[in-house]
Write a structure and sequence with these properties.
Layout: H1 2-11, H2 23-28, E1 31-34, H3 38-50, E2 54-59, H4 83-91, E3 99-104, H5 114-117, E4 122-125, H6 130-143, E5 147-153, E6 156-162, H7 183-187, H8 193-208, H9 228-244, H10 285-303, H11 315-331, H12 339-346, H13 354-372, E7 380-389, E8 394-400, E9 415-420, H14 427-438, E10 444-448, E11 452-455, H15 463-472, E12 490-496, E13 501-509, E14 519-520, H16 523-543, H17 546-557, E15 559-561, E16 570-572, H18 575-581, E17 594-595
Parallel strand pairs: 1-2, 1-4, 2-3, 4-5, 9-13
Antiparallel strand pairs: 5-6, 6-7, 7-8, 9-14, 10-11, 10-12, 12-13, 15-16, 15-17
């Protein structure tokens, strides 16, 4: 049946109307597709059926059972295999002339730097996280390569063409940071499943990831972190007893109970529930602890060959995080979660809709056709709403590309003002949370007051500099060897050769901040953007027809959000549109929002 469908679709291929098409241009265009997931699968299929035949696809991920309900290039026989390789093989059935090259890797790795990107005529993003999007955006800006950006969330989605100097880049509109939680809540007084899952993800990084001074989950002290029993007794027994002994914390709440390994079989099992699939079942505490032990041993063995990074599609990592969180939930009297639910929370997954992915992929190909046909002036920012709105039942809202923001950190010229407590914040925290986490640098080098140079390198790149940085990272920023000033401000120039990008920062002191907190001044930029967008939308509404005016008016009240998750991005439809159409979103995550342009 699948082969018959492929044959029918291939035979019924029709030209895209509205363009003077030159098939030779499509065949000659060298395309780079980054991501072979929900949008990526649909994008590859639509590209080859449109006539693009020279495609390279990059993806690090492997196929999971949970992907099969929306990534239709894959089936159960492909589980565990590379997404990029399987997708490349499958799409050639739609167009035997197509040459699709699959590469397995993280697009942020050095091998996929500017030299690699420069080989292509057009880059198309089908990525699932903020950091990778920003990285590709910066590389394309450095090379003046056209980039087509995309994203979906549930029924909503958007696509955007980025042309250096001619249109907004991905970072021209500030992105809200993911929701964070107080360290004290995560460490000692969790109240919700998400608190325990966030704690478990930090624990994973502490035990199996790179050394991180900002990881505040637990002080492991002299604990043998390679021995499962030592770690279990430390975090689920000893630490819980310490917190429980602090009587003042539990005046108005339940005191936590240690989950002693020796008493697991005699303990109450907490909540248990059945489900059609193993991943949807909540296990007894004893079974949960056994699964935790198995996953710990597997990850410890993998850790011998290098540091690990949490990935919700890594089965060992997901089991470890789920069961770590569940044991902690039992101790604190919180309802235990199935692996399925924990995965949704850990990855902030909004249910993905295959048809939304297909629509956005189709819109991306339309923009690619415009670019290849030499009609870049016709490129649009297109937004797909969850529900029809306005008198004409508009679902797709198309707007002209916006001008670049002159104050954008990536494509404009600006300096940032960052406020920290130089006495308390360490250099390691500053690099991991501010430079890499908030600003999205990949391999940063810091020039501090034009006197001190620091470069965050890997051990195999420069052993001497790596050793020096390992000594410096635990030190506070105002240490003489680092050179941040408590008064008068510190000028820091941040350079990332992998992104061909430099940003000037002024670091200011605030004694009231703790060792983890910081502020980056983007308020004036956000206000200016909102004003500019409101004026542009109002101007277009005045000159548009009744139908277009209705669509734009609806779009003006829409809001955009960014989630660091699979198939991230987009819009929380305006309340009026939702209420008038009686549509319900699958999920409404608690994230800060900003106006959709």
């Amino acid at each position: 049946q699948a082969q018959g469908l492929i044959s029918t679709m291939t035979a019924s291929r029709v030209p895209i109307t509205g363009f003077k098409q030159d098939p030779s241009k499509f065949e000659a265009c060298k395309l780079l597709v980054i991501g072979a997931g929900g949008i990526g699968c649909e994008l590859l299929k639509t590209l080859v059926t449109t006539g693009f035949t020279n495609i390279t696809v990059v993806d690090l991920d492997t196929i999971d059972v949970s992907n099969l309900n929306r990534q239709f290039l894959f089936n159960s026989s492909h589980v565990g295999k590379s997404k990029a390789k399987v997708a490349a093989e499958r799409v050639t059935a739609f167009n035997p002339k197509a040459k699709v090259t699959a590469l397995i890797g993280n697009v942020k790795d050095p091998e996929f730097g500017t030299g690699f990107i420069d080989k292509f005529d057009l880059v198309m993003n089908a990525l699932d996280n903020l950091e990778a999007r920003r990285h590709v955006n910066r590389m394309c800006l450095a090379l003046s390569k056209p980039l087509i950006e995309s994203g979906t969330e549930g029924y909503t989605g958007q696509t955007q063409v980025i042309l250096k100097g001619e249109s907004e880049c991905y970072e021209c509109t500030p992105k809200p940071q993911p929701k964070t939680f107080a360290v004290c809540t995560i460490r000692s007084t969790p109240e919700k499943p998400i608190h325990c899952i966030v704690w478990a993800k930090h624990l994973f990084g502490l035990l199996f990831g790179e050394k991180d001074d900002s990881n505040a989950v637990s002080e492991m002290g002299e604990t043998n972190t390679t021995d499962w029993s030592s770690v279990y007794n430390k975090i689920f027994d000893h630490d819980i007893e310490v917190w429980a002994s602090m009587e003042e914390k539990w005046t108005n709440r339940r005191k936590p109970v240690p989950a002693k390994w020796s008493e697991l079989q005699s303990m109450g099992d907490g909540e248990r529930s059945e489900g059609p699939l193993p991943s949807q079942r909540v296990l007894s505490l004893a079974s949960t602890a056994c699964r935790w032990k198995e996953s710990f041993n597997k990850l410890s063995e993998r850790r011998k060959y290098g540091t690990l990074v949490f990935d919700k599609d890594d089965q060992d990592a997901m089991v470890f995080v789920t069961e770590s969180a569940n044991i902690r939930m039992w101790s604190y009297g919180i309802s235990l979660q199935s692996e399925f639910n924990a995965k949704g929370i850990a990855g902030s997954i909004i249910p993905a809709i295959a048809t939304a992915n297909a629509v956005i992929a189709g819109l991306m190909v339309l923009e690619a056709v415009r670019l290849v046909s030499g009609r870049k002036e016709d490129c649009r920012f297109v937004f797909k709403s969850a529900c029809a709105s306005g008198k004409r039942g508009v679902i797709l809202t198309s707007l002209p590309s916006q001008e670049p923001n002159p104050k954008c950190m990536a494509c404009g010229s600006c300096s940032l003002e960052c406020t920290v407590n130089c006495t308390k914040m360490s250099l390691g925290t500053f690099i991991s949370k501010v430079i890499k986490g908030s600003l999205g640098f990949n391999f940063p080098a810091l020039d501090i007051n034009a006197k001190i140079n620091l470069e965050d390198v890997q051990e195999d790149e420069d052993e001497e500099e790596f050793a020096r940085m390992q000594q410096l990272k635990p030190l506070p920023l105002n240490h003489p060897r680092i050179g941040f000033l408590n008064e008068g401000g510190t000028l820091v120039s941040v350079l990332d050769g992998s992104q061909d990008m430099t940003v000037e920062m002024v670091i200011k002191q605030d004694e009231e901040l703790d060792e983890q907190s910081f502020r980056i001044d983007t308020q004036s930029l956000t206000q200016a953007l909102e004003k500019q967008q409101a004026e542009e939308i109002q101007g277009q509404s005045n000159s548009a027809s009744e139908g277009a005016g209705a669509a734009l008016a609806s779009a003006q009240d829409d809001e955009i959000m960014v989630l660091d998750d699979e198939l991230e991005v987009l819009e929380d439809s305006g309340k009026r549109a939702r209420e008038s159409s009686n549509c319900q979103n699958d999920a409404e995550p608690d994230h800060s929002k900003q106006r959709l342009k």
